[in-house]
């Protein structure tokens, strides 16, 4: 039976047959055929699955865990984080130990399958003001360990049956961060940001009204944090009985929840304050520096009962045994963040302008003004790059118009918006120094 053209039975594409190789798999009796493109796609899919199994299979993953533990002991993890994160030494130690112990626990389970002894999972709750480095620290940690990492905004989650995202979306985000590899997903890190936004509105007291974005979400997260089989649909697909689903076991996923927990220092202070503390009109009004110092002292004294008072249900706190606290960043710390880390904003702009044969210089007063503005905005390190970007916009627009060597100087007045950055010719001495 001869065919001049044939539809591919997989993709439906019409293929004109000049010779048999145009439709490599062809049944003349039934007209069934598969085109070259579909064969390639099937081959790549099978190859990817085989590579995934060979690299992340149970046996190989055990050896990978051994290598990971040897290369990433707690002091090594902290030294790596020190290259990117300023201050927060206590938090870096806590996270380094938590990550190391989590992967030791997985190795123990693989080495002692069927044994009676178990090591419980040590999920982490991280508290700290906006812009103090919570997300940045975790992102760098995941890069060092070379494991999938996904951030989900907890405030977007709602209880099942209400409009919004179900709690399973956190695992689905990790699944896509892992390249849709289930084995990698089951050994990654999930960070639930803005976790304080799902605190029970009534604090530790039960509410008699529906609370779809708070206590119900915490209840929905319980089994997931402890370790359970989570089932979800592909991104963009609606849940219904016939929809294909993906199953991921969260037993070996490290959950880290974090937030600013605004006002929790007042709860801590109420618990620890002395009976002779001053109140009323005779109390001195603390300065911003004193207030930050007091906050830093209090936040490290947080206890589970303070979190319950804030509105986190006891069952959740029981599944978050590690409490990690971060301090408020002062002006000197923000100044270091601008210039010291490997990915410091100033270093990034220096490299960008160097590609246009331009030397960028920031006066110290200018950098201090950037830090002061970030403190005024109460955004911490998060707004540092944005402040510089506003100042550098016109410079970065005009600089590429010429290829001549130049020097750009950013002053305090530039940061304040009182004048434009100054552009000078690059003299011979500077040319030789930068050559």
Properties at a glance:
435 residues; alpha/beta; five-stranded parallel sheet; three-stranded mixed sheet; 18 helices; 14 strands; disordered C terminus
Task: Please describe what this structure looks like.
It is a single chain. The longest helix has 23 residues, at 89-111. This protein has a 5-stranded parallel β-sheet, sandwiched between helices. Helices cover 45% and strands 14% of the residues. 33% of the residues are buried. Strand 1 (5-7) and strand 2 (14-16) form a beta hairpin. It is α/β, with parallel strands linked by helices and 435 residues long. It has helices at residues 36-56, 58-71, 74-82, 89-111, 134-145, 169-177, 182-185, 215-226, 264-272, 288-299, 304-310, 314-318, 331-339, 345-354, 364-377, 384-398, 412-416, 428-434; strands at 5-7, 14-16, 25-27, 32-34, 124-127, 149-153, 189-193, 229-233, 245-249, 254-259, 322-325, 358-362, 406-410, 422-425. It starts with a strand and ends with a helix. The chain contains 18 helices and 14 strands.
Ends distance: 74 Å
Shape: globular
Mean pLDDT: 80
Strands across the major sheet, in which order? Answer: 6-7-10-5-11
The unreliable regions are: 205-210, 279-283, 428-435
Total number of strands: 14
